[in-house]
What does this fold into?
Amino acid sequence: MNKKIILILFFIFLLTGCYDNKELNEIAILTATEIEKVDDQYVVKSQVVNPQAPDKTTITQSPFIIYTGTGKTIQEAYRNTTTESPKFLYSNHMQILIINEKIAKENISEVIDFYIRNPAIRTDFYVLIGKNENILDIITPIESLSSSSIKETLENNKKYLGSSATVTFDEFVNMYLNKNLEIALPSIEIINHDEEGEKLENTEESQVKSKYKLGNIAIFKDNKLQGYLTKDESITYNILKNNIQNTILTYECEDKKYITIEIIKSSASTKITNKEITIDINMSGNINESHCNIDIKEKDNIKKIEKLFENKLEESIQKDINNIRNNYNSDIFNFLDTIYKYDYNTYQNIKNNWYEETYKKIKVNINTNISIITKGNILEVIDEKN
Amino acid sequence: MVNSMQNIINKLKKETNNQDGIIYRRKKILYKNIYIIFNETIISSDSVSDFVIRSLNKIKIPTYQNIINKISNFKYKEITNYKDICYYLNSGFTIILISKNKYIALETRKNLSRSITTPTTENTPRGALDAFTENIEINIGLIKRRIKSNNLWIKKYCLGKYTDTQVAVLYINTIAKEELINKIDKLLKKINIDGIIASGILRNLIEKENKNPFPNTISAEKPYTAARYLLLGNAIILVDNDPFALVLPATLNDNFISEEDDYNKSINVSITRIIRYITFAITLLTPGIYIALITYNQEIIPTELLISIAAQRKNVPFSTFAECLLMIFAFEILRESDLKLPSFASSAISIVGALILGEAAVNAGIVSPIMIIIVAITAISSLIFSEPEFTNALRIYRIAFMIGAAILGLYGVLIVFILFLINLSSYDFLGMPYLSPFAPPDFNRLKDSIIKFPTKSITKRNPILTDNITKNKTEDYYE
It folds into this structure.
């Protein structure tokens, strides 16, 4: 009798079965979404993988397909793609979300709502701002899926230059929800967008005509897009946010002659001392290229280069911070958040008039410390018959 | 008086339907008739004529004592009743009827068994190469050669109404618990069957056959294995006419231990054992987890791999579960036919199997290439266990995992896994929990399970099997 009851209880579990059964053949793998807005209607473009038979050496079909849906909400727009798509759009593998500039300039919060509410979507995809439209349409070489291509470009840029940023949806929502933080997102644009770019022929030439290019960092204030940083400002932003894995710094050593240092380690810490902001930056790097005739066998000369770079870096960071403060008046460096964490009393006093009074005026002290570890394979500059 | 001996002969003739293989020879010594009876098919004619008849020729006075004294056979039995006459006659003895109730049986058996050969199921690159044969005396001898102690005790039974099969229980009386031997004794005494012609029949009679698909005994083909388990406190059952000894009780862990392990250093053995355990998990779980991932939990698969699998599965008309079942079924057919086929035809099987299952099925779009990989790794992994019953048991659970996965995804795999663990851990045989030494944990025996500690540090036997726990007192010279 007991056994029967246990058996029946066990089968209750089984009765729930199969409710979310989706054979792999029944789903279309959605890898990227691009959201635009036309006349108060959301236009959602979904990039769906078109799996190619593995034994075929030459690709004859486009590696992906773009389905476009229009609707008053994003979900409605997604569902409207069922008029085109033979399979259910499976969005757990979404890698990239591109939000068009126009939406970013109006209000970005409507976009956030859908993705954070929907349990079927993982929140570790990257968010970018699209400077122009139809970015996902482009067929790219090397990585045939433009979503993977963009994702890897973002990561590659983070690893070796740091002029862009990798912001996952989680981090994006965190920036959105935290009152003390401002949103900063990477941007992307298409160069030479023409019809050829949407065909496989686009990948047949060595000089790819239509291609995407990562832009610099887009900065927001009150959830509205304010503008884009320059490349140097983007790197400064990443240095201060500790996003740098590896980058290069190039400064003038003599007139019109330059030295490039590869930064292999960078750490920045922001503190509040006497109601002033102090930023300590520690970097170590290698000399990668030098056009000046400096004898780096001498330790003093190395010290000199280090000193030069410290000063120039300090100067340029100071300049970038001031520019950003003056041009956009947006606290993307999280100074307010730092004050909130280190000096709560001051925070209480200034939080209401932060942008109006304090932010532009607050003094920022920058201490930089650069140490050069290796000097490369040659000790002197290559000179004619020297 | 003479008549009564004649009675016995008549009775025998009647019962055997006057079988012409049984020879009744009358011999007159002085005034007295004695009868020599033997079964031609199972005696050695040399020993009958050379020893029995020649010895009898020399005897002048045919008294019972005199015959026993003078007879030159090495082994004789004094018997008194008709039942024993039949038994010894059918076992290849020569019976001499001397008087009404005094008979002797002389050992004159023909050697009907093959010689000791190399093992066929337990292959090891190193180690002793002798294997059990069909003759129980040779088998006992092979074990006795390894364990010379007086404490190797042997209990003999005669089982089977028609077969009268000799069954021997071997144990080391100072190691094995008396309790275990008594239990085996009870089990064997309960057996009442027409015939035991294989150790497998005996095994199924004494095991709880349907409680658990996994085997609770190990069929050892090598005397080495038998001796190894005797020293641990297990009992060995030998069945006449069967070249496999039963080791009982056996645990799950015993299936992961091989003779080869004793020849290797403990660190190397540990790695091999870990690989064996991983293989166990692979062969059990791979198809189930694959089905769960493909039909429910696609988000776990890395995107690139998912796209590649999607491309492979694009034209497959079946569901993943059906596809997987089809391939596993095909593999089981291959394995079964390979076992049944003589070895000269097995190359045909492998060509047909490899070509049809490997190439053509993929080209025809019936299965996806990734499924071939899944089934291949499952199949290869299942073949590392030398005990065929173990492989068969894995098969049942593999399909249970597949069904769980097809109904509930990874959640279903988990549910079946819990049931699997409950099944294994709630099961014991002759007082030995099947998951010992993992559950209940026995730290001394855990030293020789997934990881093997240095041989010097493995000093204890399993307390469930023995009260004489210490087995190794070797002192470390290098300390």
